[in-house]
Amino acid sequence: MGKLVVSLTVHVEFGKGPLSLLLFCLAEEVLSRGLSRLVSRGKITPIATPKKVSPPSHVLFADDIMVFMQSNSRGIKALMRFLDEYGANSGQIVNKAKSSLFIGKYVVRRKVIIQRLLGIREGSLPFTYLGVPIFKGCPKPEYFCAIADKVRCKLSSWKVLSKIFGLDWPEEALANVLFQDSLAGRRWKTVTHNLGLELQPFIKEPVCNFITNGNWSLPSLFVSSFPALANQILEVSLPINRMVDKAIWPVSTSGQFTSKDAYISISTSNPIIPWCKFIWHKAVQPQKHGYLESSPCVIHSFWSWIFQLFRLSFSNQTEDLGLLSPMVLDSLPAPSRKLWCFAVCNAIWCIWTERNKLRFDDKVFSLANFKHFFLLSFKDSASLYFALCSSSLGSLPAFQLLGLSPLRLKAPKFIPVRWAPPPVGWLKVNTDGSFRSPEVAGFGGLFRDSDGLFKGAFAHRVIVNSAIDAEILAVIEALRVAWARSWTHIWLETDSTLVVHYFNSPNLIPWRFRVEWLNCLHFTQSIHFRVTHIYREGNSSADALANYGAQNDGSIWWTSPPRFIAGFYGRDLSYVTHYRYV
């Protein structure tokens, strides 16, 4: 199936006058209700839309109609039969020469068949409908050139009128027109009115007037009147370099307001489905999904045969527990669990495909042919993971039937990981963050010299929203310690590639830490500094400190290695090699 949009232009054969306009409106109402009834009766399949969003069946304005539907032959024929019947009874005939067809990317192969059924040529995107550009993907400036030209013409006419009548339009006039009667404007006037005459002058002052030499300088009257608000302001970090103030959207990470962030903030979160990541593998195509709909006897016979291939007993209790439940998986040997996941996914996809053939193509069902079709699909997926083998004696019947070995197709690759000391005169700091929940999170890090000797370590417990927030705070704290102790040769090492990327692209840092991050970058420019990435297998000491910080309140600084990292610290000091399997 694929998406299909048909833009139709109706040739009107009514006369002129009020009665003709009324008849035209009545006929258009019949057309709109008829298209909606085709969808409600299942004769036309609507396009796919996100959850809780009703798919549009058509858009109608005057004699222009846009129909949205799936590109199956049954729906296309039903649409054309309805339009022919509508034209015969109303006198409004579809002008196919002025109509256009727009198809999705999955329908390109059947383009010729669709054009022959509809008798309408294919159109090209973008196009303009009712003065609005219709396009696919991200908007481009050239799509809105026509609208921009109309705005320029309108503004030019305003300028001409202002010169003729001697009117002056200052910039504040537009702001007054937009905001003088708004709810926000009325609330702001109420707040400023209740502050008192002494505090009202402070409201109109810019923020920069309350900063002196990089520190907050709040009026004593404001601090005494609003102590809680003053403390919140004093906790805000100020940038070392001058920055331009700008509004931020607190819900988003970047601070920018987008339609996606607005939708996420007002929509309800979907429940977590734990089995999605478990069954995902490159051998299972993402298109292979669906639901089961067929004869219960045939389905029971088919699943019983699959269970026999894995020497499992099939019963109604198994159906209630689920095909991928821990009870079913634990009863299989370790190599067979992945093969069982492949079998379940391919079985569901094959049942769905066979069901569509029976319903739309009038095919005759044969259980033997269906099993052969399943085995071909099953082997294609499994052979991407397991090695081919002519003889699989002693293994499950599924391996023997497919001619596969329980062994992996390729031996796993691994990367040697080892902590390396910094050059002479340098200090290396390894940092890490720990996140189990917003209330159970922390970060830690430790400094070591060129001989691997301990120079200091820290651990903090924090309340953050994600693991990357904890990673960022660990780096900020490490550089703050280096700044306070006047260490000028620092090598920062972290197991987060995203944090390393933030050093090259500081504009991507979450807005909550942007000021502290830019202050840290200012410090790194005045010292000898480098940052690298290390896999977590070589960052075990910092990981232990981060876990300690998440489980213990407060902030701690150690001048000697704590006991809980002694084993990790000793292995790093001995340059023990760890292995990361990929």
Labels describing this entry:
flat; 582 residues; 4 domains; 17% strand; alpha+beta; Alpha-Beta Plaits; 6-stranded mixed beta sheet
Write the layout of secondary structure elements.
Layout (H helix, E strand, L loop, with lengths): L2 E9 L6 H23 L17 E4 L2 E7 L2 H18 L2 E2 L5 E4 L7 H8 L8 E3 L2 E3 L10 H21 L5 H9 L3 H12 L5 H4 L7 E2 L2 E2 L3 H6 L1 H8 L24 H8 L8 H5 L16 H14 L6 H6 L4 H5 L3 H27 L6 H16 L3 E3 L8 H6 L1 E5 L5 E4 L9 E11 L2 E9 L5 E9 L4 H18 L4 E6 L2 H8 L9 H11 L3 E6 L6 H12 L3 E4 L7 H8 L4 E4 L1
Parallel strand pairs: 13-16, 16-17
Antiparallel strand pairs: 1-3, 1-4, 1-5, 2-3, 6-7, 8-9, 10-11, 12-19, 13-14, 14-15, 15-18
Helix pairs in contact: 1-2, 15-16, 18-20
Q: In order across it, which strands form the biggest sheet?
A: 17-16-13-14-15-18
Major sheet size, sense and barrel closure: 6 strands, mixed
The CATH superfamily name of the largest domain is Ribonuclease H-like superfamily/Ribonuclease H
Radius of gyration: 34 Å
Q: Would you give the CATH topology of the largest domain?
A: Nucleotidyltransferase, domain 5
N-to-C span: 37 Å
* Quaternary organization: single chain
Proportion of strand residues:
15-25%
How many structural domains does the protein architecture include?
4
Count of DSSP strands: 19
Average pLDDT rating: 78
Class by SSE composition: alpha+beta
Low-confidence stretches: 12-17, 160-194, 286-294
Helix content: 40-55%
Q: Per the principal axes of the C-alpha atoms, what is the gross shape?
A: flat
CATH architectural arrangement of the largest domain: 2-Layer Sandwich
